[in-house]
# Entry
Amino acid sequence: MPDLALIAHNLRSTHNVGSLLRTADGLGVKKVYLTGYTPYPSREDDDRLPHLAAKIDKQISKTALGAEASQAWNRVETIESAIAELRQSGFQIVALEQTPNSQPLPDFKPGPKVALVVGREVEGIEPEILDLCDVAVEIPMFGSKESFNVSVAAAIALAYCRFQA
# Structure
């Protein structure tokens, strides 16, 4: 089975973060990296105001249902440092994004270590972040909508990578 990591960059929704943590736990993701302004659960060295940290933690736990405690995660200020750490550990950095050069997910052959990058709910992953990734993949759409919710899309892509090995 491949080693999986997930980078959630510049998400706004606490509910998406909770859902991603729960999905990551269910699919055996080694670690989730929460970067940029992505909200994150409370932690021991939390420097946020206590009432804000508690409010955000409560919102995340609503969808995480305990995965915020069972799933390994880390708050990393910059996505560049998360990508550098993962790349140094041999991970292929895979953006989940619709781009002119992205390949359909069913055509993607994941390696033994995959770090999936997901980005902003509406705008997607910033171009300068896409440039740091090894490949971009997209989920083919068959209905009238152009994309899935970020947590749903991540679940599809992570499950695909998990079961392709």
Summary: The longest strand covers residues 3-9. The chain is about 35% helix and 20% strand. The radius of gyration is 15 Å.
